[in-house]
Amino acid sequence: HHPVWDAVDAYTLPHSHPPSRPNTAALTNALVASKAAGLPDISASPAQAKFLALAARAAKVTHALEVGTLGGYSAIWLASENPQLHLTTVEFDAHHVAVARANIVFAGLANRIDVIHGAGVDVLARLKGEVLAGTRPRFGFVFIDADKTNNWNYFDLAADMALPGATIVVDNVVRGGRLVDEEALQLPQIQGAREVVEKVGRDARADSVVLQTVGEKSYDGWLWAVVN
Ligand code: SAM
After folding, report:
1. Is 70 in the pocket of ligand 1 (CB under 6 A)?
2. Which domain does 118 fall in, by range?
3. Which PANTHER family does UniProt cross-reference here (predicted)?
4. For a substitution probing ligand 1, which of 78, 91, 117, 141 has the most ligand atoms within 8 Å of its CB?
């Protein structure tokens, strides 16, 4: 962690996203209510969440998928910055689901964000069945941010239900550089990060890159893939 990273986010964010913006109250409420409900402070940073939302807007995404809802913070960013977007977001923890749904109702986004309670692999397998059956639209944007050991399973399922040209983002693959630390190779989260980097790299369904990031949520990085 570096104080300059915090300071740059603290300086730039109020310029690029002034507190007068319409989604400010909803985003603040999501963080405050999540903390009050005892959820861990592991949501995406405001700058990173807005970047994801703007990427979805640039691609004119109408249907997005998230794995790992937590309190709905990144979900509220995605939907509130994209009036055309419908988001399906999957969460395993029943308490997180309840907090997220309340935060989404507060944000006035319950009609465009569907929180599905369940284990990511099970739910994505069901969604894939619906997509392949033609009863659910393909996704134009996917944000994978749940249990890191299933990163590859989530990518593998998501790639089969993505539109051509869709973006699939996997969060937290750099983990302060531990991605390449010999001593960390036994950690399940590092194995999950390396597995998804290596397997997506040789997957004919997508082209990918890992982008390292710093900011108020420390040093980490995304795997960013575009589906062929
Ligand atoms: N995307 C959220 C945001 O930026 O506001 C943060 C998500 S948090 C890093 C990860 C979430 O994944 C937690 O709420 C956790 O309960 C959930 N999770 C863990 N294992 C899961 C699983 N197998 N299926 C679905 N969600 C899971």
Report:
1. yes
2. 3-227
3. CAFFEOYL-COA O-METHYLTRANSFERASE 3-RELATED, O-METHYLTRANSFERASE-RELATED
4. 91
Domain of 164: which CATH number? 3.40.50.150
Q: What ipTM was predicted for this assembly?
A: 0.99
174-208: pLDDT as tens digits: 999 999 999 999 999 999 999 999 999 999 999 99
Q: How far is CA 156 from the centre of its chain?
A: 16
Number of domains comprising the chain: 1
Q: Please list the ranges in the chain whose pLDDT falls under 50.
A: none
Residue 96 CA: nearest ligand 1 atom is 14
H/E segment holding residue 141: strand 139-144
CB 55 within 8 A of CB 165: no
Region of 38 (left: φ > 0; alpha: ψ -120 to 50; beta: rest) is left
Which region holds residue 141: left if phi is over 0, alpha if psi is between -120 and 50, else beta? beta
As a whole number of angstroms, the distance between CA 29 and CA 110 comes to 15
